Amino acid sequence: MKETFRYIIPTLIIIVFIYLITNNQTEFDSSDYLSFGMIFLTYFYVIFTWEMLERMRTESHLEKRPYLIADFDSPKSNLSFYIKNIGKTPAKNVKIKVNPDIKLRDSDTINTTLFKGKIEFYPPSKKTETYITTTSDFFKNNPDKFTIDLEYMDSFNNKFTEVITLDLNHHKKQSYIVEKELKDLIKSLENIKKAIEKK
User: Fold this and answer.
1) Do 98 and 129 fall within a single domain?
2) Where does a domain end: 11, 32, 64?
3) Final residue in a domain of this structure, among 49, 64, 79
4) pLDDT, tens digit, for every residue of 100-145?
5) Which of 30, 91, 99, 152 keeps 20 to 30 A from 124, CA to CA?
């Protein structure tokens, strides 16, 4: 409810009330003052109820709308980029643009391959992730900050436009624990075996 509408009615009532008192055109008793106060209380109660309903409707809409997020991930020093719908409803006509564009392989980039066209339907909890390169190699030729332009619609054709700024400095300075897999253990045992056989 607009601020002007919220205050214009009580302001007019006060002006009329003061006018009647100052011009002695009406005699007021205690019941009249009580009625005047009840008018104010009723008005502000209506205003409060209206705003509460508006807030509930807005929160309900925000809770049910799609929410697309974008970010970089770097497990085991391998950098990847992903988008995910963390909302409770599907997104439609999704358009994504990464600025500046990121080279994947050869002459391919994220904007010319993965996000070249719009995605017609993107359901809740869906995640699209693509591997880029190792973290160390990435920062040799790329900046630390990127902006992600997201455009999409909900099931009621309401349009959402969002710009996400991502700072990758924490990926650059991140430390990693080298985890050995079973194949690494087998390879180590084979190397030991070969070394023993040579003796």
Assistant:
1) yes
2) 64
3) 64
4) 999 987 778 999 988 988 999 999 999 999 999 888 889 888 999 9
5) 99
pTM over 0.85: no
Q: Is the peptide bond before 100 cis (omega within 30 degrees of 0)?
A: yes
Helix, strand and coil content of the chain, in percent to the nearest 5, comes to 45, 30, 30
Q: Is the dihedral of CA 123, 127, 130, 132 positive or negative?
A: positive
Confidence check: pLDDT of 149 > 70: yes
Q: Which residue has the tokens 């087998």?
A: 186
Longest Cα separation, the chain: 122
Overall number of domains in the chain: 2
Q: Per the structure block, which two tokens stand in for 115?
A: 């996000």
Let me know how long the chain is. Answer: 199
Q: Which two tokens stand for residue 60?
A: 């309900």
Containing domain of residue 133, as a range? Answer: 68-172
The C-alpha atoms of residue 124 and residue 117 are separated, in whole angstroms, by 20
